[in-house]
Automatic annotation (TrEMBL):
Gene Ontology cellular component annotations, sorted alphabetically: mitochondrion
Name of the featured protein: HAD-like domain-containing protein
GO biological process: glycerophospholipid biosynthetic process
Length: 394
């Protein structure tokens, strides 16, 4: 494998290129390494060629996921070279519009893991759909949605309930949700969609209220009008309609949940309201800019360890030699390829999109690769991708 790579010895000067690897469909099928993936990562590690893992996956804290990935792929990884879908949400704790002390609702595959992630990011008041359900089970008139892995937590304030509240809610006396986040693929779509829709229809984020600005009729039919009434913003950590798991055909991802919610929202608002949402993750520029910063910092560490991090830039500053190219190796044209092709680097780094055949895209299913979805090259798998890139680098 090493001879194929055309790599001189360890002493090679700091590479002017690096890699960004998608995970699902490139390195792993869920928990199973894709053939060649461990060898490739070990090789890059041995030869000090920097790389990051850039995934739309999530639902576990970075430290937990990185430990799991290191064990599965047999390569030392750290949070320094790992970006998952919701990692950039950490930035919402600080700065203007900080949500640190606001009440945020989180959902995903495991409510308590999502809460723990956001608590670790620095959000102080984090609630889940299970907390709201436990506070008033009538909010969801079906069987309990699922055996909650750990008991829900009491809400910081009581739920507003028109039959009992004597005056319009105030944030001092009743629960007010200030923002909603989907961190990874939800499991309880019915409960989550009910509660998220309640909040999108609410007055200012008070569950149990109904904004007078939403003039849908009683059966959610042709009201047609919907105006923002300080409802809590809705954030998604990725828009993947499909992703590559162990089943031979792609599976629904968080983008499918978004589509289900958006379809219900159109119905409930009588078509009057576009589902207002913010989605990050690949292919969005925010995630690629965040990833490039993470890769740049990680690369400095790698080059420093090599002793090759001193470089006189044109501006006269001393730092790492410029990063010329990042080879983005992905399996999903809609996220990995489109994102790399569309990324405009703040440092003038060229992102080269490489599509593998081990994931979402396949020739047999005829996924069209046109426009922004057209990769620089299509190769069989991650090992072929790295060999192709190294040959290009000479
Ligand atoms: O939930 C994981 C899925 O959305 C795709 O993950 O690693 O292929 O970006 P990945
Ligand atoms: Mg993938």
């Amino acid at each position: 494998f090493k001879s194929d790579m055309g790599v001189r010895g360890r002493e090679r000067e700091p590479p002017a290129f690096a890699f960004a690897f998608d995970i699902d469909g490139v390195l792993l099928h869920v928990a199973k390494p894709i053939p060649g993936a461990p060898e490739v990562l070990k090789f890059l590690n041995d030869y000090n060629i920097p790389f990051i893992l850039l995934t739309n996956g999530g639902g576990k804290h970075e430290t937990e996921r990185v430990k799991d990935l290191s064990e599965r792929l047999g390569v030392p990884l750290s949070t320094d070279n790992f970006v998952q879908s919701h990692t950039p949400f950490r930035d919402l704790v600080e700065g203007p519009g900080s949500l640190r002390d606001k009440t945020v609702l989180v959902t995903g595959s495991d409510y308590e893991k999502c809460r723990a992630i956001f608590k670790e990011y620095g959000f102080k008041n984090v609630i889940t759909p299970a907390d709201i359900y436990a506070a008033d089970p009538t909010i969801f008139p079906f069987q309990p949605p699922h055996t909650f892995t750990t008991p829900p937590q009491p809400l910081p304030k009581p739920l507003y309930n028109e039959t009992t509240a004597t005056s319009p809610p105030s944030a001092d006396t009743h629960l007010k949700v200030d923002a909603m986040f989907v961190l990874n693929d939800p499991r309880d779509w019915a409960l989550d969609i009910q509660i998220i829709t309640d909040l999108l229809l609410s007055h200012a984020g008070f569950p149990g209220t109904y904004s007078p600005l939403n003039n849908t009729d009683s059966n959610g039919g042709g009201g047609g009008g919907w105006q923002q009434d300080n409802q809590p913003p809705l954030y998604f950590s990725n828009a993947d309609l499909l992703w590559s798991a162990n089943y031979p055909l792609p599976r629904f991802g968080q983008g499918a949940f978004q589509a289900a919610l958006a379809g219900l929202w159109a119905r409930v608002t009588g078509g009057g309201g576009e589902l207002r949402r913010t989605s990050i993750g690949k292919p969005y520029g925010e995630t690629y800019r965040f990833a490039e910063r993470v890769l740049g910092d990680h690369r400095q560490g790698v080059l420093k360890a090599m002793g090759g991090h001193q470089h006189q830039h044109q501006q006269g500053v001393v730092g790492s030699p410029p990063l010329g190219r990042v080879y983005m190796v992905g399996d999903n044209p809609e996220s990995d390829i489109a994102g790399a092709n569309g990324h405009v680097s703040e440092q003038g780094t060229e992102w080269v999109s490489v599509l593998v055949k081990t994931g979402v895209w396949s020739e047999s299913r005829g996924g069209r690769l046109e426009g922004g979805l057209k990769p620089k090259v299509v190769v069989d798998d991650v090992m072929a991708a790295v060999k192709w890139a190294l040959r290009k680098e000479g």
